[in-house]
Amino acid sequence: MSSILTIARREITRLRSRFTGKSRIAVFAIILLAAVVGYVVYQQDIGMSRHLYTVGVSSDAPPITDERFKTIEIDPYEGFQQLWEGKLDLYVWGDDVSYQHSSERSLYALGALKEYLEKYEILRISREYEIDQAFPLRIEARHLKVEDEITSGHGLGTLADILEPGPTPDPGAISPDPAAKTDDAVRQQLEEFRTSGTLPEFEAEFVSDEEILIPSLSRPPIPLAQVVLTFLYVIPIFLVGVFFTSSFMEEKINRKLVVLLSAPVTPFQIITGKMIPYIIYSIIAIIAITIALSGDILLSLAIFIPVSMFIFSALLMVALLYRTFKDQTFFSIMAAWMVIAYLITPAMFTGLSDVSYFSPLTLAIQVYRDEPIGVMEYLLATVPLYLLFSVTVFMGVRVFNEEYLMGFRPMHRKVAEAINLIMDRNHLSFSVMLVSLIFLPVVLMIQFASIIIGMNLPATLPDSVSFAVIFPLAILSEEIAKSSSVAVLLQNRAIGSMRSVIKYSFFAALGFFIGEKLLLYLTLSVVSETMFVEAALGSGWLILPLAMHFVTTGAVCLLSARFGVRFYPLAIVAGAIIHGSYDLIIMRGEIF
Amino acid sequence: MRFLALVKRELRSIRREKTIMFAVFIQLFIAAFSSFLMIGVMSFYNPESIGENARIYVDVGVVGEIGSPVAYYVEKSPSITVRRFDDIETAEEEFRSGRVDALMAILPESSGVVEMKLILPQSDAESMLITMALDKPLKEAENYLRRQNGIDLLYDDLEGKPYTNFEFLYSIIIPVLMFFPALIAGSITIDTISEELQNKTLDTLWAAPVSLWGIFSAKIFTAGITAVAQCILWIGLLRMNSLSIHNIPLVLLFALLIAFCVSFGAGIIAVAFKDRERAQFVYSVGLVTVAGLSYLVNPSPFELMARLAAGGQFVGLLQVMSYLLPLFLLGSAFFLFSKRLAAA
């Protein structure tokens, strides 16, 4: 432990030394400038679509102050002429608006202007008419508990209690409240509407109980708070992480890493010692952000510490894999995007599907909405991140040697070398299983990305084209994940006989199979209404998929052993064909 | 000729390290996830857009005044199915069992005012989606009631197209896609310059008859042309998806000028700090600052790119060429910094 702390202290000193003298002043100045500029721009309330539309207006047209419209005062004859020539998107004369029927752009401009003018119209009618005439529809929002919902403090009671508070409600007993009760709410919202005119600010809670909604005055809520939470919490952690990866780079260049490796410290101590200061900085950032958002610090830490460990897992991989400065930049950007995609995508389904519990951001959203979170949901969201962190640190420890870290070679060789270093020759069967298990999240990510790429293909293409993209990518990634460890063993001549190839192929297939089923079990324990149920029911006997994994992995590895590892890509294709045939037979009811 | 040789050397290095492949992969990855992210990000741009972009289907139960015009307008919405109930108990049972998503308890009209209670599930996300789906029909019902109350509404008959997708595409997506390669070009510039400085490989290059400014300019030129290559790729992909971009030559020229401006700025930072760690940090924070400051310019780079790509009026070659001035200033500053470094 003392060695870890010594390395951690050394890391803090190193970081401090980066920012001394003039550079410290320059860095503080630029951070301060960024804060000031951010504040000024926020205060200016600058929209993103300034002057996107060009609108001609007559002298008696209503004022158009929305900055999306660049207005030009012009007489009607000239205005219609320019509208016809496509120089104007719209022409507003008095209370009428003219547009180009054949121009998409003009129609979009009309849609935007209609919305703006409707707001202008609300202000007019609120001035000219009585409040009951101008705002004749008032809606009181109330919440009720649905059977499978967890009670969270509001929305208790029955519908009768809400509609008719009293001892014996009956169907015909819905009596109107005096409109005067809601007039105050209308006046208040109208005043807000008159003074604001800006986009609503972020609020974690959407529709509170007993809130009065006036349709034309209601400000739409900002949904999908997970995107905000991601940027508020995750991006600062990534900024801290830049220094963590850079630390490895600097020590490689200065060859201090070589000195460190020759010292009486283990790779585990070096990695954790270097990581600890940055994890502490991340925790400080999490606490500061939570205080700023008036959140629950302990719950935020419980949710975002695993997230920061997940980010540091990705950054550790970057630090171990990169070969040049440019590699480091691109790997870091890629890692950031993958982490953000992993965190945001499931969280998009918050409240709609239990799949959202794969992301800890879902828990954070619930915490900010004062909704309770269950233990199982917490475990599903965070245990995979802790596991990933442990596996990454384990891999880091295994590959942490001078030759691997300092050498420059093609990426596929670097990965093969890492697999070779991860495997323990004394426990080869277990190692082979472990490598398959480790690759499982990567396979899932590739399969997930392939599904999304397939879904993004032009809608004009037939569905079979999407299938042709998703299916081969999914199968090839699985076959590579299962067979790569045996291929690396073959390349390094650690195994030779066909018997041992078959034996380790079985263990590789078993590792993948266990991981696959474990993931399915974990998912089923939380997720109730998703495709996973179908997948579980459809898989039939457990022995069949295991046999398939073994046959395809065995085929790839035996072909590689027979013809040499340089034919490994072709062997993968052969294995994928067998795998694909099996899947098509299993799914034939779905696709034929 | 020497300059071209240096550019070729840089391009070889990028090809050898497969760096550009990573850049393209990152952008494809971003694009692949954009459809998921787009709904989320667009909802910040305009919260009402979620109804346009996500297929929301809601079952709404109506109790009380089941023949109210409010129920009629809600029923007209293609994303809502209305079920009318004669008694509260059945409605509650259907709601609690999840067979209807929300309940509208409509009270009798009184003095021209209709009051109703909207019963929502506790889940905020579901409630939010239901209120999104109800937003338009309730506004239509409100306008109907206004007309019943003798109010003559202006602009009610205007029929435009939902504009959020259009504005989001041209104001955010296209500028981001055209400027993201510039961000990468700046990072590449810092990496290549600080790599030479930190690895002390500059001495070898100095042996060649080229100035330090020439060496570094070749690096910036290479970063700039890789940025434009990525922009061309993006435009191709967008066109494949039937998304039209106007003024393509001007859009590309503008993206190139911005890429060079960013790269010269990044080059100044790299030469000033002389190590990657600090340079990349200052570059990241500085870029955000400059992007924020640029909004105070009229038209801002984002705005100019949006208007060019959308085929807007009053923007053209003159506005694009005005960015030659910051490019000249940054290039000159970079020249001075390089000279100072050479003299040191």
Textual characterization of the structure:
The complex is a heterodimer of chains A (592) and B (344). In chain A, 68% of the residues lie in helices and 5% in strands. In chain A, helix 11 runs parallel beside helix 14. Residues 149-156, 166-176, 198-207 and 528-539 of chain A have low confidence and may be disordered. With 592 residues, chain A is mostly helical. In chain A, strands 2-1-3-4 form a 4-stranded mixed sheet. Chain A has a two-stranded antiparallel sheet with strand order 5-6. Chain A is globular and about 90 Å long. Chain A is built from 22 helices and 6 strands. Chain A has helices at residues 2-18, 21-44, 76-85, 104-128, 131-134, 159-163, 180-195, 225-253, 256-262, 267-292, 297-321, 325-347, 360-368, 375-399, 402-406, 411-422, 428-455, 463-491, 498-526, 531-538, 543-563, 568-591, and strands at residues 53-57, 69-73, 90-93, 96-99, 137-144, 211-213. Chain B is an alpha/beta fold and 344 residues long. Chain B has helices spanning 2-17, 19-45, 49-53, 69-76, 88-96, 124-148, 164-198, 202-206, 212-240, 248-273, 276-294, 301-309, 317-321, 324-343; strands at residues 58-64, 80-84, 102-106, 114-121. Chain B has a 4-stranded mixed sheet, sandwiched between helices. In chain B, a hairpin with a 7-residue loop joins strand 3 and strand 4 (114-121). In chain B, helix 7 (164-198) runs antiparallel to helix 11 (276-294) and helix 7 crosses helix 12 (301-309). The relative contact order of chain B is 0.10. The mean pLDDT of chain B is 82. At the A-B interface, helix 2, helix 4, helix 5, strand 5 and helix 6 of A face helix 2, helix 5, strand 4, helix 6 and helix 7 of B.
